[in-house]
Specification:
With 186 residues, the chain is an all-beta fold. It has one helix and 16 strands. The chain is flat and about 70 Å long.
């Protein structure tokens, strides 16, 4: 068993028989009261945030979460299918586990999947991906000075706001966490 002094940001703990990840952890010693840890954590199953106050020195149950690399293969309408890099086994993942960044995934992208035992509990997508523009209105010479943007459809079907000088066939870099255009790929 671990104690509250072992809690750090990114630590997985079992709290109320559910898996949580620690998002914020502060040790507080108010005036003449006993010290405590104020912990903000996110439930892995439903994504809800929870704040709890632990007494200093209280025992907590740490959870072992294993991370493995998988290659994205295809989306079958309900699940995103991945292949284990070592065993070449295919593994389906629910779309809610991937979040909004899933619409920027291209086939053959490498994604880290976190497991609690044999159950997938989370994913870590690449921070940015390079996508080819398949459809957008053509840019007009002289439109680059205003900083305006236009919608563009990428090869994955995701729509990204890009600068006016981006044309069909260009390859751009997109942040998977925010869905924003970063730069034109070289």
């Amino acid at each position: 068993m671990a104690t509250t002094s072992d809690l750090k940001i990114g630590t997985y703990i079992k709290f109320n028989n559910e898996l949580h990840i620690v998002e914020e952890c502060q040790h507080r010693t108010p005036g003449n009261l006993r010290a405590f840890y104020q912990v903000k954590m996110r439930n892995i199953r439903n994504g809800r945030f929870l704040e709890n106050r632990f007494r200093s020195g209280e025992e907590v149950t740490l959870a072992r979460v294993e991370r493995r690399s998988f290659q994205y293969l295809f989306f079958d309408g309900n699940h995103y299918n991945f292949m284990d890099q070592q065993t070449f086994d295919q593994f389906p993942i629910e779309s809610k586990l991937l979040g909004d960044g899933a619409k920027y995934l291209k086939e053959t992208e490498i994604v880290e999947i976190m497991f609690d035992g044999n159950e997938a509990v989370g994913t870590i997508l690449p921070f940015n991906v390079e996508l080819k523009i398949t459809e957008t209105i053509p840019g007009v010479k002289g439109d680059t000075a205003t900083g305006a943007t236009k919608p563009a459809t990428t090869e994955t079907g995701a729509v990204v706001n890009v600068p006016l000088f981006i044309n069909e066939g260009d390859v751009i870099r997109v942040d998977t966490r925010t869905g924003k255009y970063l730069e034109r790929a070289k």
